[in-house]
Amino acid sequence: MSVQPDPLIRRKNRDRLGRPVLVVEDQRSLAEMLSALLQDRWGCEVHIADTLNRAKALLAQGHPYLAACCDLNLPDVHHDEVIDAMTEWPSSASRR
Q: Which helix (H) or strand (E) holds 82?
């Protein structure tokens, strides 16, 4: 069952519709739930990474992410590394 689009939210957020959002989550079911919510309710394009290394690879491609939703307990890194990578991303992306 998918979440029904909210016309009011869509009208108020037209400039954000279709913008990509990065979801960094290693639990597939949670990543899919977040993706469905962001796509159906907010009209976002969602990119999913299940490790920090995959997230960094997506960030390196230069996508203009509106936001990132990150799991701080990834299997490949300590939570401090996730925070550092995500806070470093906007400044490095703006230099392109």
A: helix 79-94
